[in-house]
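User: Teach me something about this protein's shape.
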Amino acid sequence: ARVTEIATTGFDVTQQVPIRVRLLQITPEEHILVVVVHHISSDGFSMGPLTRDVVTAYAARAAGAVPEWSALEVQYADYTLWQREVLGDESDPESLLARQSEFWRTTLADLPEESTVPSDRPRPAVSSYRGASHGFTIDGRVRAGITDLARRSGATEFMVVHSALAVLLSRLSAQSDIAIGTPIAGRGEAALDDLVGMFVNTLVLRTSVDGGVSFGELLDAVRGVDLEAFAHADVPFERLVEVLDPARSQARHPLFQVMLTFQNMAAAELELPGLSVSGVDFDAQIAKFDVQLTLSEGFAEDGSPDGFRADFTYATELFDASTVEGFADRFVRILEAVVVDPSLRVGDIDLLGADERIAVLERWNDTSRPVPESTLLDRFDAQVAASPDAVAVVFEGESLTYARFDARVNQLARYLISRGVGPETTVGLAVRRSLDLLVGMYAIVRAGGAYVPIDPDQPAERNGFIVESAAPVLVVSTSRDGFDVPVSVPVVSIDTLDLADLSAGPVSDAERIS
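Assistant: First, the predicted structure itself:
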């Protein structure tokens, strides 16, 4: 708990140096050294030289001496001045910064505002960054297959994994435009290896995933996407966001919400005289993105390389642990399948495990089960008759009795019938959580139609796809929800309709469209 407190306390970098060190005594012979460094001044690669400096200083002080430091070839300030000189002035169209900015403007044009990974809960208005992790392994056999496929395809292991993750996201969301973020080390010169500093940049890898192509063909496309991105990696991500100016929101990370990270840094080791040192596992329980997949080297008991260790870090506001466990299982199945046969079509890769297949094909579709004779409306009508004055629904201090709820449902149902809603028709239901949501739901069913749930907070492109696919007679929404899609379909705001002239009594079969 003390380590967590030290590590999660923020820095005021206008007043403090961006490093915090605390030594906790557990027993006279056991201590914990906590070193917290703000990301503005260091990256993951910096932990190597920082650890070496700690070892050098400890060994010298333990021997009663003063540490002797080797002079660095360059300082971080040298790097920042060099970067400014190389990038040039963005107002100069021939500068590296201007050319690369234009590349990203073109590459990320019309990028969807947010990822379409289906979540267990709606996205909150402001992210809390609360997170959790699900760890799993990619065994040595699959790892060897990834290495072999990369070699035969002229790609890298990262590109194979990126392709597999893009397939997973595409299949989960039924979308083809997939954007994934990834960090890039930014240390292109050997002189920078011993520097502690923030060199990492973030790239957006945008891939079009076509279910009809083979995984090998997708890998070829991903290789091109990745190489182009790596060749234009000098524009700082913060500047890229300013240039592209996407819709800002405290609910999500800009430009992408899924991150892929390869941790290929060697573990820092401390070899000190008279002192046994080991690391303390620390889970900050923070999710910067909706989902982040991190892969690092796995090792067998004898210390030899063996597979990958993998983690899905996820926002607990959006996902349940069981859902993310399913993501991991499906991701591994994709890799297992494509390393054996990269000619598999992306849309044909089997994501279901044996137990899931039994559930889908046998239990969910078991036609031998008896079908209830009563319908949803039969049971609702029975409840209205049994307790008309009882409270049926409550939301944010407003409530409706069964009788009043039934009356509103019947009036709206008659209006929907007049607009052509009936058997074999669909109606979009784009209403946030409210009393109107339930009234609209029951009214559509009362009219004889089927409702298609639509989340007004999802990107317009995704909702447009849903509306275009479902082909509803109309979409039911409210003036508060402000629902709009780039598809020609009537949108009715039920909170502004004047239904006073419509009967609130039961809707008969004769009134419905046959």
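Now, about its shape. The longest strand covers residues 305-315. Residues 321-340 form the longest helix (20 residues). If you'd like, I can walk through any region in more detail.
User: That's plenty for now, thanks!
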